[in-house]
Structures are given as structure tokens and as C-alpha cells.
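Trying the structure run again after the queue cleared.
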Amino acid sequence: MNKKQFDQQQKLKIVESAEEIGIKEAAKVADIHYTTVYDWKRNLDALGKEAFLFHKPTRPGRGIKQISKEQEAAIIDTRKANPGYGPGQVRSQLRRQGKTISIRTIRKVMEADGYKPSRKKEKNRDWQQFEAERPLELAQMDILELFINKLKLYLILLIDDFSRFILGFRLLDKTSIDEVIDLVGAGIARFGKMEELLTDRGFVFYSWRGINRFELYLETQRIEHTHARPHHPQTLGKVEALNRRIQSELFAKQQFSTAHQATVAVQKWVEHYNYQRPHQGLGGLLTPAERFHGKAEKVLDDIVKGCDVTDQNFCIERSIFNLVLTDDGKITFYLLGRPVLVAQGGRHV
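Done. C-alpha cells:
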């Protein structure tokens, strides 16, 4: 199909007719996609009538690329199923389904459907981002304060640094060392033991006088405890970013009557985040679960082949094994989260 071409005067007439009969109807009469009329209207509003008529496209003669009904439906359906996604995430999710659509087309359809991009300014970074080299090498944990009506709640998130996989969470009306210990213990029992845990210096994580029970628990588990630098939240950047995302996508958009309702919603959100949502920090195509459970290469190969990988299920309850090296040179072998062998200097002990 040949791409249609219109001069600025024709575009103006189509946009003006859209004000009377609607954008989609005007697009239908002109035999073009409604997103094109939406673009023209936006340019007219920004430039004004006179400047719009004298405006010269940066790539004249290129014509208008048609957007198929199948492409439009795929974009709208993906956005409807994932209302927090931006154009890049929608493109990644479609790629995982074996559908390749340009980000420009996706953005046009989404904006015409009501999507408004955020205008956040990127702050200058004077720090270098760190990433662990393997699952369970490093975990991060943080506490987010929330309000449901007038009830103050605390959301504790425990994530794997390497994969961004959420190892567990707790939603509480008050924080306690016992709950934090229980969260870490449950994560170890289900997925395996982390070698190092990074937290801030909150009172449940750290004591300025001696050592508290949480720190003692980590010592007995041979988990190295690292503290973020004071007034430097970037150190906990991955879990901080997760805090912002769940706050904007869940708690800012849904109303809850009870803490139980909120807990159920968080559980559902976490399952989707871990197993279905492609993560921009992992290249935009992989879910946290695929990287955590060692399926990244296979999934990427399948995507290159055009396969639909969204139906694959990697809901493995535990990491099969992991090795932990302590400061004194001892190596502990963990099978399904339980220590089964300790070696030192090549000898079993």
C-alpha cells in the first residue's frame, strides 16, 4: 500500500474537520490512522495556525506509515493489561509475544489513547551503579511508609540485587526486628541463602550501641551485613526504585479499606512483577524470575526466533544450590536453602 502524503493546508482542513466530527471519524474520511490526525492536532496546538501552515516536515516525501488494526489492538490490549507501562515496556512485552512494533508507533497509539509521558528531569549522577554478578550474591531490603486512609503501614521489601527478583515482602502496622528476621528466614527457606544483605541504618536493621538481634541473626546465618551510607539513598537504588514503582502503580491508584486487602493486592503485584513484567534494568526483555532462575539465555534466544515467551512459567520455589564464601575462607554449600557441606582450604570440616 502506498503511503499517503498531505500538504500543510490539507492537514489543517482534516484537523479542523476533526473538531466537528471527531478525530477518528475525520481520519476515516481521509483514509488515514487516527493517530496521525492526533499528531497534526498536537502540532497545530503547539505552533498556532500560521506557523503550522508554514511548517516543513523534517523528512518531506516520506509519507504516512499505516498502522494495522492488529498492531493497534496489540498495543491497546497490552497497555490495558499493564496500565503502568510506558512505550518502552509495551514494546518489550510485545517482543516477548513475538510481535515487533516500532516504539514510535507504540507511542503514537498510546498518546492518542490518553497516555501522558512523565516529564521527570534526569538528575546528574556522581555515583556509579553496582550490580551483583550472580543470584543471591547480594540482597537489598528497605522499609516504605504508607497510609491506607488514616492507618499507617510499613511495606518491607527484600530483593535480589542481580535479578531484581522480589524474595519476599511484609506489610505491617508496625515494624519489629522479629518481622524482619522472619522475612529474611522465609526468603532463605524458599529461594536459598544470600551471601550479603544491604540495608540502611534504621533501628530494626542496626544498633548504634552494640549489636541488635537482627544483626546477630545474620551473623549466625553467616550473611554479611552491609549498611548504606548515611544520606545516600542511591546505595539502595534498586529497592528504592521498586518502592517508588509500587507506590505509584498500586497504592496511588487503588483504594483499600483494610490492611488485608492491601496485602492481597501487593501479593498479586509482586507475582506479576517477578514473573510477567519485563524489567528495563535487565535490558527491557527479561523478567526478574527469568534472570534469577538462570533462564535468561534461553528466553533471549526464543525472542530472537520470534517465539512467544509470555506463557513460559519459571515459578521455581527455590534455587537448587548456591555457594557462600565467608571472610575466614570457609565455603558453605547450600542445597535448597540448607547448608549441607562446609569446606576450608580444600578440606571438608
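Strands lie at 139-148, 151-160, 166-172, 196-199, 224-227, 321-325, 330-335, 338-344, 347-348. Worth checking whether this holds up in the mutant runs.
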